[in-house]
Amino acid sequence: MTSLPWLDPDQLxxxxxxxxxxxxxxxLALGGDLSTERLILAYRNGIFPWYSxxxxxxxxxxxxxxxxxxxxxxxxxxxxxxxxxxxxxxxADRHFGRIIxxxxxxxxEGTWITEEMxxxxxxxxxMGVAHSIEIWNQRGELAGGMxxxxxxxxxxxxxxxxxxxxxxxxxxxxxxxxxxxxGYRIMDCQVExxxxxxxxxRTIPREEFLSILRMTIDQKxxxxxxxxxxxxxxxxx
Length: 237
Description:
Its EC number is 2.3.2.6. GO terms for molecular function: leucyl-tRNA--protein transferase activity. By secondary structure, this protein is α+β, with helices and mostly antiparallel strands. The chain folds into two domains: 6-62, Alpha-Beta Plaits (2-Layer Sandwich), CATH 3.30.70.3550; 66-217, Aminopeptidase (3-Layer(aba) Sandwich). The protein contains seven helices and eleven strands. The protein has a seven-stranded mixed β-sheet, with helices on both faces.
């Protein structure tokens, strides 16, 4: 079995993403730390942490990569009816701490979002790199949410939860359209799921994903203020 590099917390580096294992798919390195500098370096190079409390920090770059190009968001007929009902409102950066903790606590299969990760991503939020997206019902109650990182013209989705039917789908539609208006090139979904694929996400080879990152990660988006202005029906509808 190929040995994996152990990262020294005092040395800020990663092996190239294309050196990741095929089995388990995408495992690249172990150890290091969750400093904001290391996390930003990881995402800039197509790498993300994913591990449990009883494991060392594990760093991944799977092949293929699940992504959503904002202009490819798919709105089914039933979802269109939900959007037409205007049952939900979408905001950003209102309750980052609440969103990341609900992403951790609402997963029936358990979570990789450890207290250490919550602390590190909360610091990224204070730096303006990590963002939360909230979706609210007509009673002003939280119906779902998501958090991720915005670097250059790339948004890296980390985790999402839904407390009401279709809330996460409505959130995805609003997020995709808003990212498109701001000039974002890609939304990283990391690993495919049926939910993401039905929303228009698809898998691409890791090298294609890394190529997109290289072209867009240093480009400033058209807007850096995360105020959601897009509303359904939008100009494309």
